[in-house]
Design a protein that fits this description.
By secondary structure, this protein is an alpha+beta fold. Helix content is 51%, strand content 12%.
Length: 197
């Protein structure tokens, strides 16, 4: 894994050379959905090419947001499993480039809805379908400027013990990836005044 990270940083530096990054930030623009100011935060570490993450999007993410709505902040962090998912990093970068234009969650929805079609061409088409400024979106993707942010999520996940995707946390405590377990953890956190564990 260390070799993967070192290679990724080297490629990041090389890829960024020669690409116009005017108007593009290396920082992530993604924000939590639900209520960003809520006392309870649900965090998912996910991979945009992971079939289990697609299933969780339909059976956990959406239902949790329907059930708790503005009572929770729901955040997504990248954990691309590049050794088994060839488009995972590219999709993560595209999602971050979409986030710069306020369309992170819409991009995530498109990705998980159309995951079977995931390819470089599909990512471009999804950007068009979302009405993104394609010049900015394409230059952002070509520069790989978001890769360091994605790798930071990945390293953070590793430190927290994430070994696969999806992995969920409620206020910093890892929770089993089931609706019952996540609901119980959210209810407990709310009853405790929303203190981070």
């Amino acid at each position: 894994m260390k070799r993967f990270l070192a290679t990724s940083f080297a490629l990041l530096i090389l890829a960024a050379c020669g690409v116009d990054t005017t108007g593009i930030s290396k920082d992530s623009s993604r924000k939590p959905t639900g209520n960003p100011g809520a006392a309870v935060t649900v965090t998912e570490y996910g991979d945009l090419q992971c079939p289990a993450c697609k299933a969780a999007y339909d059976t956990l993410d959406k239902p949790l947001l329907q059930k708790y709505g503005q009572q929770i902040a729901f955040e997504f962090k990248h954990f691309p499993l590049v050794t088994i998912h060839e488009h995972a990093m590219e999709a993560a970068e595209a999602s971050e480039c979409a986030a710069d234009q306020g369309k992170f969650w819409e991009f995530l929805d498109t990705d998980y809805t159309k995951q079977a079609d995931l390819s470089a061409d599909a990512l471009t088409q999804w950007g068009k379908d979302l009405g993104l400024n394609m010049d900015l979106f394409t230059r952002c993707r070509d520069s790989h400027i978001k890769r360091a942010e994605i790798l930071a999520d990945y390293k953070e996940g590793e430190k927290l013990g994430v070994q696969g995707t999806p992995t969920f946390f409620v206020n910093g405590t890892q929770v089993e990836s089931t609706m019952d377990a996540l609901s119980a953890a959210i209810d407990k956190a709310q009853a405790g005044g929303g203190q981070r564990l």
